[in-house]
Amino acid sequence: MTGTGLLFRLFLRRDRLLLPSWAGLVTLLVLGTAAQYARLFPTAELRQAFLAEVTGNTALSAFTGQVHGAGLPALTAWKIGDIAYALVSLMAVLVTVRHTRAEEESGRAELLGAGAIGRHAGLAAALLLTWTAALGTGALVAIGLPAMGFPAVNALALGLAVAAPGLVFGALAAVTAQLTPRARTATALAATGFGLAYLLRFLADGSGLRWLRWLSPTGWSHLLEPTGDPRWAVLLLPLFATVSLTALAVLLVARRDHGAGVLPTRPGPATAAGLRSAFGLAWRLHRGQLLGWTAGFAVAGAATATVARGMPEIAGRGGPAIQEFFRRYAASPEAGIADTYLWLVMLSLGGVAALYPMLVALRLRAEEADGRAELTLSTTVGRTRWALSHLVFALLGTAVTLGAGGLAAGTVHALSTSDSGQLGRVLLGALVQVPAAWTIGAVAVLAFGFLPRAAAAISWSVWLLCNLLGEQLGPVLGVDYWLANQIVPFHHIPKVLSGGEFTTLPLLALTAVTLALAGTGLLGLRRRDLG
Fold it and tell me: Please, what sign has the CA dihedral across residues 238, 297, 264, 366?
């Protein structure tokens, strides 16, 4: 443990902008939502009337969780709680892997280890930083909410509910960082754990099988019921999971070589016929990620579609708030709740799928920063050809993953409704998301071409903006839905599942924007120095 304090200060300095920004975003979302609902529903009667509309709506509960308590605290937690839990979980995974496995992979950890640094110091410093960030975010939420009229006990409970998933998934990422020698694989494994946890919570609230929440770390934050009568004993679950996973990570660190993972790595083939071209090398680098994403989307699509048939047809008899919510996602007033629900699922899959082309584009930056791109470009392969050999997977991979999700969801929905026509409808609903997801990846290519050092920050900011602006960040900042609809690419695609007609014009326009952004980024790559 020698040197833990020194490494903690080093990691803190490296993340001096990232962590405050992420924590500030989560705090802004929670406090801003509380302020927004205080303006929209100034009286207790109005708040209670709105709660009566949303309580028991399984379609909304699948995305937000159950309502606990009454008044402004219950409204705030219902609207933004699950999103805050997810953002803190994602932050914990990225920060922990960045300061553990990624440091080893780059060789910086070995340089630091040559000094007076203990074997477990890096892991301890990374976890301390992650936990500090998660608890700090929860503290900001807990301190700010009483000014919005929250009772102190509910503010404290909601702050702990926000922080708890960060502790668990930070510890989980510490374990996955010991399993594999690659930071990307470690992140993917930990993110898969988060995805499974979210899916279990989603199914629990969407299908009525509430016991599934006990199996999910984000479900534990819901089970705490922070805005009702908090169930403090539930906090023992994330505490136990964090301690257990941390102990496992410490044990694994002592049992592996520096730079290696616990899981065995297979030696390469005696001949490498598939690596004789830039495309072959890119396929070798991306195939594992592509297969994992495809399988994950198929599982997510099938699981979320299982509850579609059970959604009650309440769009026509719901209150004004419910009708307004579905109106934004339905192209026709006659659209049923099941179709609108499926459209919301496809939109959610599209928002997540936008990560895939973005990560492929950022892989180019990683290849450049680690020096592997320089080796490839020292051959007859030019910069544009090298970049295109990767970007073709960004284009095709996005379509493959969304197609797998749509195919699985459509199959399940067709079987549950005994209507084979549903398969094609749902699959089309997934595939129309592809051009919108491409545009976010194209922004990453543009940033890589001109601002490579800031490409990751720009890409993640754009992805978060596109996923949060419409329903979450927009109302908090006072941004009208009309403006959000113009900025977010997913709002331009035809709502083919919720009463809209299929038209190719917006899809072709988004594809043109993608080609323009990516082409400009490639021009920038050709003209700048590498490194």
Answer: negative
Percent helix, percent strand, percent coil in the chain, to nearest 5: 75, 0, 25
Position of tokens 């705030």?
76
Structure tokens at 172: 């989980």
Look-up: residue for tokens 């922990």? 96
Q: How far is residue 19's CA from residue 293's CA, in Å, rounded to a whole number?
A: 27
63 in Cβ contact with 202 (< 8 Å): yes
DSSP 8-class letter at 182 = -
| Alpha-carbon span 36 to 176, nearest angstrom | 39
Would you say 286 and 294 are in contact if contact means Cβ atoms under 8 Å apart?
Answer: no
Interatomic CA distance for residues 343 and 322, integer angstroms: 16
Q: How far apart are CA 514 and CA 429, in angstroms?
A: 20
Give the integer Cα–Cα distance in Å for 253 and 262.
9
Q: Residues 6 or more apart from 100 whose CB is under 8 A from it?
A: 122, 123, 126, 173, 174, 177, 186
What ranges in 65-151 are assigned the alpha helix state H? 71-99, 101-106, 108-113, 121-144
Within 254-336, residue ranges assigned H as helices are 278-305, 320-329
pLDDT in tens, the chain (531 residues): 788 888 999 999 988 888 998 899 899 889 888 888 887 777 888 778 777 777 766 667 777 888 888 788 888 888 889 889 999 999 999 999 999 988 888 788 778 777 777 888 889 999 999 999 999 999 999 999 998 888 999 999 999 999 999 999 999 999 999 998 888 889 989 988 998 998 899 888 877 788 899 999 999 999 999 988 999 999 999 999 999 999 999 999 888 887 788 887 777 777 776 777 888 888 888 888 899 889 989 988 888 787 776 665 554 555 555 666 666 677 777 777 778 888 888 988 998 899 999 999 998 988 888 788 888 888 888 899 999 999 999 999 999 999 999 999 999 889 888 888 889 999 999 999 999 999 999 999 999 999 998 998 899 889 888 877 766 666 666 667 777 777 888 888 998 888 788 899 999 999 999 999 999 999 999 888 876
Is residue 17 helix, strand or coil? coil
Cβ neighbours for 454, distance < 8 A, ≥ 6 positions apart:
447
Residue type for position 502: F
Half-sphere exposure (Cβ direction) of 164: Cα atoms closer than 13 Å: 28
Say how far apart CA 189 and CA 325 lie, in whole Å.
34
Per-residue CA distances from 465 to 71, 472, 484, 531 (Å): 29, 10, 10, 28
Question: Do 477 and 487 form a contact (C-beta atoms < 8 A)?
Answer: no
